[in-house]
Amino acid sequence: MTFYILRTFPQAEFKAENQLKDKFGCVTLAPRELKTRTYGQGKHKRDKPYAIFTRYVFAQFDVWPGVDRLRDEADLLCGYVAFGGCPAVLTPADVQFLRALNGEIPLPPAPWHKALALGDRVRVRDGHWAAGQVTPVTQVVADRIQGYIDLFGRSTVTWFSLADIEPV
Q1: pLDDT per position in the chain (168 positions), as tens?
Q2: Contacts of residue 18, Cβ cutoff 8 Å, sequence gap at least 6
Q3: What is the number of structural domains in the chain?
């Protein structure tokens, strides 16, 4: 049983997920995050789920049902992701990551983050400061570190996510 990447219409991810469950009886993943919206000059607040991957739903089928059947029975789908004319499938590591984003399983921490100490040097490989700069660690907190980065000729203190760095 493999997971396929399906495209939906804008802001129809959760409806398409329910439609796939009802009509095909398949397992679906549409990771979401809660965002708080403020209304009425800050007087009213409301939490609303938003899709992390907008316009995409991940569905697990025993056998690929075919594009025509998907479009006929699930009217909120507008296509699928393909490579070389074949539907794209997710690897088991991708599925595990999506389940962690969905909150079904805990997200595994980076195995090397416990070995970080003050003064260690790390390279920024992703995120806002992804210029490949090397920075010394000045503080380590649960899921992020503090370090220096050179901006406009000055050394500036900033925080980095553990997912965005790698040890040097």
Answers
A1: 789 999 999 889 999 999 999 988 888 988 888 888 888 887 888 888 888 888 999 999 887 887 678 878 888 888 888 888 788 888 888 888 888 878 888 766 555 566 777 788 888 877 777 666 677 777 777 677 888 877 777 777 788 877 788 877
A2: none
A3: 2
Extract the tokens encoding 100: 């962690």
Cα separation, 150 vs 128, in Å, equals 13
Identity at 73, one-letter amino acid code = E
Give the CATH number for residue 158.
2.30.30.30
- Three-state DSSP state, 34: strand
Last residue of a domain, one of 70, 101, 132: 101
Please indicate, yes or no, whether the overall pTM of this predicted structure exceeds 0.70: no
Q: How many CB atoms lie within 10 A of CB 59?
A: 24
Q: From start to end of 9-133, where are the E strands?
A: 27-29, 32-39, 44-51, 56-61, 77-80, 82-83, 86-87, 121-124
- Domain residues for the domain of 145 are 113-167
Which residues sit opposite 51 in a β-bridge? Answer: 32
Q: Which residues, 6+ apart, have CB-to-CB distance to 147 below 8 Å?
A: 122, 135, 136, 137, 138, 157, 158, 160
